[in-house]
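Q: What structure does this chain adopt?
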Amino acid sequence: MAADYYELLGVPPDASDDDLKRAYRRLARELHPDARPGDAAAEERFKEVTLAYETLRDRERRRRYDLFGPDAIQGAGPGGGDPFTGFGGGLGDIFEAFFGGASPFAGAGAGRRGSTQLRGADAELAVELSFEEAVFGAQREVQVRVASLCETCAGSGARAGTTPTRCRQCQGTGELRRVRQSILGQMVTSTVCPRCGGTGEEISSPCPDCRGEGRTVGERTYTVDVPAGVDDGSTLRLTGRGSAGPRGGPPGDLYVHLRVLRHPRFTRRGYDVIHTLHLPMTQAAVGVHLPFETLDGAEDLVVPAGTQTGRVFRLRGRGVPHVQGRGRGDLLVEVVVETPTGLDKAQEELMRQLAAERNEEVAPPESKRFSRIRSAFS
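A:
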C-alpha cells in the first residue's frame, strides 16, 4: 500500500503551501544524499518525500490525489516522467527553489551549471465575469504589464556584435562558496554571486534598449479562455505568460483571479442554480402554468394546486456545467407563497366568503375592540 503523502511530510490534509514547503525543507536537509552519503534507505525516503511534495504543491495534482489517491497521479513531475525534474534540472534545482543557490549539502562531486537562466517573475490580475459568463464560459482579453524578451538583443543583454563573458568573480558558476569546518565535518555554504546575479555571465557592452537585462517592460495583451462552470474566487494559470527571465531566462506564469458578479434572479450552490419564486396565494392554491426564464431560455413551469412554501421544483440539467467532467447541475426553484395585503372591501369580503365555505374561523370585521387588540401586538 502506497504511503500517504501527508503522513510522509508530517502535515495535515489542510496544510497550506507554506506548511508544505517548511515540512519538505526540514526533511530534505535531513535525508538528502549529500548529507547522508551511502545511506540507501535515506535516499529512498528522500525520493518519496520529494514526490509527495511535488504532488501536493501543485493545485490540480493535489486535487486529484485527494480525490483518488496516488494512482491518479500520472507521471510524478509536472511534466511527467522523472519525479525529480519538476524544477527543471534534478535534485540540485529543488534547493535552488528554496535557497537561491545549489544544494547546501553540495560537496564532493556536486557541481553547478556554468551559466544559469533565471526564471521570470509570475504576474497576476483580477477579471470580473457576469454570472452567465461564469456558467457558460467566455473569452476575455486582458492587459498586463510584464517584462518581455528584448527584441534588439534577443534576450542576451549584449550589444549587437558582442557576447556575454564568463563572470570573473564566480568563474561562471553563478555562486560563491565558502567552506568551513564544524564538529560534523566540512560544511559548504553558497550564495548568489553579486556581480552577475547568479547568471554566471557578465555583460561588458550592454544592449542600449534593455541595458543588459535582456528584457523590456511593457503592456501585453492576452486572450483568456474561461472554461464553463468556473466559480467566484477561481484562479486560472496561463503558463509562460508572466515576465520573461533576465538574459533569456524562461518566463513566469500569469495567474488570473476570477470575480463573478451577482445575478438579479439566480444564486449558485455548488453546480446547482437557485431561484426563489414568490407565488401569490391564489396561484399556489389553484395552480398555474408559468413561463419561466432559465439561463438557457424560457421553460414552462407547472405549479400544481395546493403548492406550499418551501416546495422545490427541479429543472434537471439547467444548472452549472462541471468544470472537469460531463454534465450539468440543476436549476432549483424554491417557492415562497405570499399572503395578500392591502385588501379593499370587496376583496376582503371575497376572502371571508371563502373562509365561510371552508368552515375556517377568521377575525370579524374590524371593530374598536379588535383595533385595540391589534394595537397591543403591533
